Amino acid sequence: MNLKNSKFLSLVLSATLFFGILSGVNASSKLSEGENLDITNITRYENAIELTWAGDYNEYEVFANGKSVYKGKDKKFKHKELEADTFVEYLVVGLNEADDISDKVKVETYTLAGQSIKSMDIKPLDSLRVTTVYKKDSLKFDWDDISGIEEYEVFKNGEKIGTITKSEYSEKEMAEGLYEFVGKIEVEDSKKEKIRAEAKQKLQRELTSEEEEALFFENYSIIKSFNPQIEEAVTLASEAYSINLKYMTFIPSQYVENPYYPSLDQTIKYFNGNWRGFNPSSYDYKTRTETQYIFSNKSLNFSKSVGSSKFYDANKVLQYTRTARDSGIYMSERSRSNTAASFVVYHNCEIPYYETTTPEIDYTYTASIKSENGGKIVVSGSHDKAPSHEFYYQINGGPYRTIFQHDIVDFKYLFGLWPNWNFNFSN
């Protein structure tokens, strides 16, 4: 049986980190002094999860997805008979002699992906899952190590807040937010030579040292949307009845210079851009895909749209307008039920110019969605580093929430051999 021992083995969250016992519990609950309740180990199996904790309380109770699954004096609980790749939200509480809650901690984690799931992986990040542990005034994320990544840049709600050298992150607050951890992996020497050769063919020149520094690395983003719900003793989150995923690509500038002018084309100097920033409600894009799943009737709907491309001369006078074919944009279903669905979206859309020489806009993602706990989403895949990419989710017809917003790096990154941006998102 495969298992992964979490790095929480070496972690005992200190009383200083947690700032004492929690406030804000039910009014009828009394608080007693004692050693804070800390998660010390999480062991994940394909069909079970084992929790170990430290504390100094009379008894402990464990809730799994709102249901009590253990109560006693032991500081360890193994949750058995689970399915592979299953999300579980645990609430571990410390009880005093009056059976009142003295302290509590939440754990959000997954069982390991089964062999059948791993065999379908398109990218290595498909089976990665983030474990979250949090209390009032404390938060920790933990995920599997990725070979080759030495450090991550940490972004919170789109702003860089630091760097880390391990595949774990903690902070002394518990606030809703979108966290993104961006690491890089250097490509092999054989691929570097292919990149150099393709660059010389496509760009008609050698790469600069600055370009090589950027082009010889692939990006990896671990993204977590965090919405804490610690104040309730038992989670009673309603089930989602629909989940919608929207992905758009766009060019933020008004015009883009034609890299083939004037060497191959003496007429067209500019292509049109979309002249906008990130916006889930925009109708101005290069491409758009949207996938909606309705759990009650197992309805999986996919739509796609390609915006027109306009071509201008040196004076920015419009010469002609074309729309690329959408045959390379499609969705492939994996599974569906009244509580879950899984599918893959493929996106390969050409730039309708010189089709034999101009590159395509590529991305692929695999989505696993579930109705439980208010709607759970895991999405992983990769995309070109051009143009700008934006990805959103919507639950029960509510507001769009961000999965990621990645700015254009350079149009050179559209060429097939050049590194992509890989991502893994969960809420």
Mean pLDDT: 84
* Binned strand content: over 45%
What multimeric state do the chains show? single chain
Number of helical segments?
Answer: 4
Low-pLDDT residue intervals, each spanning 5 or more residues: 1-34
Shape: elongated
Q: What topology, given as strand order, has the largest sheet?
A: 12-11-14-15-29-26-25-24-23
Rg from C-alpha positions?
24 Å
Structure description:
With 427 residues, the protein is mostly beta strands. The chain has two domains: 3-135, Immunoglobulins (Immunoglobulin-like); 240-426, no CATH class. The protein is 7% helix and 46% strand. It is built from four helices and 29 strands. The protein has a nine-stranded mixed β-sheet. The chain has a seven-stranded antiparallel β-sheet with strand order 5-4-7-8-9-10-13, with no helix packed on it. Strand 4 and strand 5 form a beta hairpin. The longest helix has 15 residues, at 189-203. The relative contact order is 0.12. The model is unreliable at 1-34 (pLDDT under 50).
